[in-house]
Amino acid sequence: MKEKNTFSRLREKEKRKEKFICGFEIVLYIFAVIYQHISLPVVHDDIVRSKSEFRNFFEIVKYYWNYNGRITTDSLAEILNHHRNIWIVVDCLAYVALVVLLVKIFKRFSPAFLGLAELLTLVFPFRYWESAGYVSTTTNYLYSTVCFLGVIFFIKELQSGRKKVLKYLLAMLCIAYIAFSNQFIIGAILFLLYVIMYQLWVNKKSVKQIFSYVGLEIWSVFLFGVMWFSPGYQARMNGTEEMLYWLPQYQYWSFLKKIIEGYTTTVANVVFKDNSLLLILCVAIMILGLYTGKKMIVKVIATVPSICMFLLRIKGYEKFIVYYKYAGSKPDIKVNLASVKSLVALSFPMIIFIAVVISLYLLMEDIWMRCFAICMLVIGAVSREMMGFTATIYASDFRTFTLFFFCIILAILCVGEEMFRKGEYRAVMAIEMVSLICWLMQS
After folding, report:
1. Fewer CB atoms inside 10 Å of the end CB: C or N, the chain?
2. What's the predicted TM-score (pTM) here?
3. Number of other residues whose CB lies within 10 A of the CB of residue 178
């Protein structure tokens, strides 16, 4: 009895210590986020919106319904541009919400996992928010990311019996916000489809048992249809002014050309330019393979992504990308099958992606976590690939990589969670160190 009481006291002391460390980490994280928001200039679309003179909220919604169909994200941007101090507070809270949701999705409440989640969100390039103006970009991409993570969290929580109605309504609300952003609503639709297929095939549930997920899928498709057939979105799709202004040659692109450009512009940035998060994922998989891989072939496959990134780094990432005049500062890859450099630039990203997916499949024992990690990478890749079918593929700047990068973050945390499950705490610390180095190098 005495030994039991001693163990309980030690456990309570350990819990208090963990709570203190977590609190200290959150405070440091908040300071880092606030520091990033100091003295941000009013630029690009924010300048126009800060001078607008709408009389009420309904007038704003009506305008964007007829202008581009984005009645949630752009309407909020319009409001917050007139209250910039409030936006700073909301934006900092959005960053905190990112970390809270990432931790809650995995239900891993520990200083190490919290620290990893915080570092990964900080590694995401903050400069991306400047592209259309800080307020306009964050309302369309950062807040949509928060809602996308909210959808994942509430859908996972629907499996428990507590407060199901509230969770369902909150999931619907998150979907309603991102429904007017193409990349994110497509991501939500694909994720819900994955959940439905997983429940039917892996958990062997009937359609009646998963009707709540089907209902959310119908809700997502319905709202996507509302946005799609809005006057503003139809005018933007069928009009030629935007295309002729940003990318006149787009009218001559074939279907295959659009697919190729979606791929080349995506890997040019994710693999060869802003590749910190992909590098962390590759290193995390290598560490997981070396620590837990039972067969030599598995260990070898797990090291392939890191070796590929290392070889590209030795040669020089900048040697594989090109900057076309019509693309501005956005990188691309030249498709030339007669050039070794071009073939390497086109093939290495495929090798990395395939090796990452195979490694996740072989190394992760938990079926849900394995499928979830792979699903996130597929959703992220599709969300950016679809940009090849819009004339603003370059004009939209780097902000269109937001969902892909946060999907990579989710995949990294899946690897971290697998390490925790197997008791490989030093491996998690190693990933944290790599993340910290990447953040410091780009700060």
Report:
1. N
2. 0.94
3. 29
